[in-house]
Specification:
Blueprint lengths: L1 H26 L5 E10 L7 E12 L5 E8 L4 E7 L2 E2 L1 E6 L6 E11 L4 E11 L7 E2 L5 E3 L21 E7 L4 E2 L3 E4 L2 E8 L3 E3 L2 E5 L7 E6 L4 H25 L7 E6 L6 E2 L2 E5 L10 H15 L11 H21 L1 H16 L10
Helix pairs in contact: 2-3, 2-4, 3-4, 4-5
Length: about 375
Amino acid sequence: MKIAKCKLFLSLLCLQLVLVGSIQAQEEARAAWQVTNFDINVANLGSERALNARAVLTVRNIGRGSGATLTLRINAKAEIKNITIGATTAVYRSQPEPRGGGQRVIVTLPNTAAANESIAATIEYRLPVDDNAGVAAISPVATQFLPSSMWYPAPNTAFALRGPDYAPFRLTVNGSTAVSSGVEKSPGVFEQTLNGQPFFTIGNWDRVEGAANAKGITTFLPKGAGEDERKQADNLMRLAANAREFYAAMAGAAPEVPIRLVAVKRGAGFDDAGTILLSEGALRRKKIDSATALAVAEAVARIWIGANTAVRGEGHGVVREGLVRFFANQFLEKEFGAEAAAEERARQRLSYAAIAKRDAPLS
């Protein structure tokens, strides 16, 4: 009965999202850009503390008006080398981005783009990394670039009303043992057919493959991990597999996407389209802690909510975070019992209480 109600709720919500997204796009009286595909090629990082890349974005004008310019956002330290629209070299200028600390790159289009028209923009750029952080780092031990670092150009960021751009992508990271989301076509080459954000992490891992109902799930353990860590990897993959089965019963068959649990030194807690970054400490524990269980449960739920079914538009965070949390709590109750779920919800209420008085309305 509970699963049937959840299915009805999800169907109605998805219908509402489609209608709201359609109405919002139609109400844009000017050009509004949305990425429909990313194709990013990262050069061999070598010894230079900088990322050199070539990004090809297919973007669509979802507004009602025609567009004479295309505005992209990227990290403030990025050095733009060249931009082409189709086969034509474009004129562009940069200025500070007031929200998020990046920069705006305003590109003059060679021809006006009508409503619903798509264009291809190719951007060649260099991004120096002066100091390592969780969202962007280059080091012999661990290198990674996560979306919140604004390491690649896109019209929208997390600070936009419609939210950041999620789209299928192809990512090539040359000369490395990179991990991202989607299908690994060859070493360092990933194709994501669901809606995701390009990212990658480079490290030295031992791969542990899931079996039985955990088939298609892989854990990337620190190189030389011991038997206890391998047992914990099995436990986490079993948890992810159980979550996948639980959500499939609620929302339909699981999308065809690999699930990866990746142990990292920095950036733990990030997930996108089936890949989850976990702290190395989470794999050294004897049992799965509540924070890790919730992270895995939410990451698997986002395969349906956001990756398979795009979540865009004003208020997107309510669905992308709120509905995912609801699904995850339902799963944790089934997996660990009502008492454990009640404790988890109590923790969540306490966390929210700290910001409740100054939180913005949902709509």
